[in-house]
Write the structure tokens for this entry.
Amino acid sequence: MSLPPDPESFRVRPFLDSQTAAPNLEPVEDLSPGLRPFVLTAGRVNGVDPDIDLETQVTARALEARRLAEVPIGGLTREHRAIVDLCAEPVSVAEISAKLGLHLGVTKILVGDLRAAGHLDVHTNDVDASHDPETILRVINGLRAFT
Amino acid sequence: MDFVRSPDSAPTATAPAPKPPIPVKIVVAGGFGVGKTTAVGAISEIIPLTTEAEMTEAAAGIDVPGSTTDKTTTTVAMDFGCVTIDQSLKLYLFGAPGQARFGFMWDDLAKGALGALVVVDSARLDDCYAAVDYFERADLPFAIGVNAFDGRLAHEIDEVRWALAVRESVPVFAFDARHRLSVRDAILIVLNLALERATRGR
């Protein structure tokens, strides 16, 4: 699913620069007063992609790759575009849902759409990695360092 | 954003989107008004985010927060926070309502979770029964944190343990959901259970 890194991407994705990725805790764009959830998902109620969990990390693909996507960038809905914009830095599905004011189930479906269309990379949770004793120890040590 | 770019990366971002961290998940469960959101907020590096904001009027008559609280709104969906451990590791804390009728959410929440912290108000123990039942059945490591409101417990820890009838291996302890280090210690107890489980090789 993943394409080779695009060497030209820095030209077209200036927002990846850390200056623009300043802490932003405010909702980016609240889409909730928009359409009813079943309209956004074209009537679908079940997540199409079983890989997508709450904490699953999502990133936007490089713009060059997105230009070749199945669904052209111009053909994306407002909700789709808002999701892609949010994913310039790795972000979890739960954060996308909360920041855009989209129902969690709707978010999962839309993220699945964007993955299938080639706009997003969904970094499927490696359960073995997160349940590895080494990983758990790192979390324990990280928390112990709290003051 | 909570993602910290590595110091050696060039100022002009030549790489595509940075490599995402491994997400590690812990569920914080409990009844309405017991301090789940407070606990998540005490340790999270971001303001806890909520997928849905307030208790609906329909639920208002059903879920009466404890008589001792003056809480007027509460979360219906779930709220969550996160702690960046390092660039490749991020801890997510998902606060989940404990009522049985929200059970459909728990499969989603528990999937892939390392463990759960059940937050209990010792004056309203029955609020957490559904959560305890669920995690026992799901075989997810969990610990019970009795939130000491104003430093007071309505019942002793031993009495809480007796009332909940949990296995000896389930830690039951008092903590203060408002204090970062107290919540940190509660999360560490859950992580130690998860570590035991992981090293046993399931």
Remarks:
- Chain B touches chain A through 51 residues (CB under 8 Å).
